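Researcher: Please translate sequence to structure tokens.
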Amino acid sequence: MKLKHILIGAGAIIALLIVLKLTGVIGKEQIEKVTVEKAGEKTVIETVTASGKIQPETEVKLSSEVSGEVTELLVKEGDVVKKGQLLCKVRPDILQSGYERAVASYNSQKASVAASQQQLVQSQANFVNAEATYKRNVELYNKKVISAAEFDNAKAAYLTAKSTLASSKENVTGAKFGLEQSAANVKEAGANLARTTIYAPVDGVVSKLSIELGDRILGTSQMAGTEIMRISNLSSMEVNVDVNENDINRVTLGDSATVEVDAFAGKKFRGVVTEIASSSTNVGAATTASVDQVTNFSVKVRLLAESYNTVKGGAKDLPSPFRPGLSATVDIESETVKGLAVPIQAIFTDNKNDSGNSSEDTEKQKSKLNDKQIKQYVYLFDAKTSTVKKAEVNTGIQNDQFIIVKKGLKAGEQIVSGPYSAIQNKLKDGTKVEQTSKDKLFTTGSKK
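Model: Translation complete:
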């Protein structure tokens, strides 16, 4: 009796399993849900991203050439100044006395020149008289009217007067040279005295003031002096960014750029590359620096005024809404190509690995696909059989979303575009899939 019950139960279970199998409840092949897109022509802009600080394109650092105490300070930080405007003064006491001594020496030398010239006039008169006397004595001596001693005295007086005249001429010349030297000393002393008064060399805004009234400053005569202030042209701003050595060769002068400033969330500004450093920022650094240190090159991107003229907010007291030192991120458009393109996550390599963080998918792909020596593939979708087929492709430039396909794919062909985890780890040649939309795919994934 018990055996009969066991056989009946076993038969019922077998029958149930058969029914479930026939209805597909159990033993059904697992079908991966994927999104499909057609390969089509797109414009792909490759960018180089870097971050840095906003700074004025023109900035002048002012230091005093003389040391001393600041006795007058006529501006404050943020003031707009014009070229030639008086900014501050340094105590001139010592230099003032030096200038006065130089002027006094100059005047004394002028008097010496005048005295030498008068002496020359006297010497000329004496010479004329001695010359006339000598000539008369020559005639008288020839006529035997005067003695040889008298003739010799007249001749000696003539030669003495001639020598005195030459000496007076040289004294005048020397006095004039001394006057020129004194004039140079006055000029030098005046220039030194003028250095105690500092004027604005350019039009601009006092972007940084480093001193206070009464501070003692160090001059730049023999060493690096105290920086007094900075005057900047804030109507023309730029972003100074550090570009990695792997990307610097893709950047050229004149490249367009998109600039995002942290202080202006959600707004984008336009810029253009104006300067690329020829040496890395590490040149000249200590030799003890690690060999693993990142090597960057400084690149300057000018902010185009037309992109921020209508911006509201920011620095209302300055010519532009940007204050020096604001943080910014720059996307430099290094190359633009129009051609056949597919989503970047659709490309995979033979070096597959597990990934569970979808937020890093694009960055992983961009990094991996930069190496063009590695073979790259896509999965073609066959709508008739709902299966996928692996196809090798040759790719070009890429941006955050799409990558150019140079070879191995035709326009209009359907390729598997997601999800990233399925493309990288689950799909194989001949895998049966179910086409779905992105909304359904990610909605289903989030519910799970």
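Researcher: Any highlights?
Model: The first strand starts at residue 32 and ends at 38.
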